[in-house]
Amino acid sequence: EVQLVESGGDLVKPGGSLRLSCAASGFTFSNAYMSWVRQAPGKGLEWVGRIKSKTDGETTEYTAPVKGRFTISRDDSKNTLNLQMNSLKIEDTAVYYCTTGGKLFDHWGQGTLVTVSS
Amino acid sequence: DIVMTQSPDSLAVSLGERATINCKSSQSVLYSSNNKHYLAWYQQKPGQPPKLLIYWASTRQSGVPDRFSGSGSGTDFTLTISSLQAEDVAVYYCQQYYSSPRTFGQGTKLEIK
């Protein structure tokens, strides 16, 4: 059974940084493209970015509002996906979901809440 | 960016009746080389993460009940629930994966009348 467990969500001040992690199990993580999708409170879904597998170059892609501030990485030895978030803005407040897939998203974690507020 | 627009924003349907949700993309999501529409539907129940229901516009994900069906082509797509059950109360999202950034519709909230 595929399991994705996010962690690292917290309350942070504008301009601050936070690192989210996602522990994956139940599938061959190293072969998987992985993505982050976020959902602001009471709002819809927004794709944040994705990382390809190492064999496909481990390249990343991001949505414009986070480009240059967020970095997705992976540690295949630990089956872990990471999201480093810098220069956080109030509008980054959301539940962040770790998902399998780079185009469509077939498995989702429960999410971790990031609140950016002074 | 491809803009996805769903209608209606909310919908109330009686148990056992048909529910229909529409999704329109700002440009075609048909990839001509394989004749596939890069369109997916998700269901999000209260307090839960989204769940993939349908991909390639009309292919049900494994385990999804056959009362859920997807249809459409070009820029206009439909999710149909043939006979609404109480457990289908949720917000439904369409999503295009034809191009980056992947984009979602704003969601349609489905309730019981």
What Rg of chain B, in angstroms, do the CA atoms define?
Answer: 13 Å
Compute the average pLDDT of chain B: 97
Instruction: Tell me roughly what share of residues is in helical segments of chain B.
Output: under 10%
Distance between the termini of chain A: 40 Å
Reading the helices and strands of chain A in chain order gives EEEEEEEEEEE
What's the tally of helices of chain B?
0
Largest interface chains and counts: A-B, 18 and 22 residues
Distance between the termini of chain B: 36 Å
Task: Encode the helix/strand succession of chain B as letters.
Answer: EEEEEEEEEEEEE
**Strand percentage of chain A:** over 45%
Shape of chain A: globular
Q: Uncertain spans of chain B, ≥5 residues at pLDDT below 50?
A: none
Index terms:
heterodimer; A: 118 residues; mainly beta; seven-stranded mixed beta sheet; four-stranded antiparallel beta sheet; 11 strands; B: 113 residues
Description:
- The complex is a heterodimer of chains A (118) and B (113).
- Chain A has 118 residues and is mostly beta strands.
- Chain A is 0% helix and 48% strand.
- Chain A has no helices and eleven strands.
- Chain A has strands at residues 3-7, 11-12, 18-25, 34-39, 45-51, 60-62, 70-75, 80-85, 94-100, 107-108, 112-116.
- In chain A, the strands form two sheets. In chain A, strands 2, 4, 5, 6, 9, 10 and 11 form a seven-stranded mixed β-sheet that branches. In chain A, strands 1-3-8-7 form a four-stranded antiparallel β-sheet, with no helix packed on it.
- In chain A, a hairpin with an 8-residue loop joins strand 5 (45-51) and strand 6 (60-62).
- With 113 residues, chain B is an all-beta fold.
- In chain B, the strands form three sheets. In chain B, strands 2, 6, 7, 8, 11, 12 and 13 form a seven-stranded mixed β-sheet that branches. Chain B has a four-stranded antiparallel β-sheet with strand order 1-3-10-9, with no helix packed on it.
- Chain B is globular, with a radius of gyration of 13 Å.
- Chain A binds chain B through residues 35, 37, 44-47, 61, 63-64, 97, 103-106, 108-111, and chain B through 38, 40, 42, 44, 48-52, 55, 61, 93, 95, 97, 100-107.
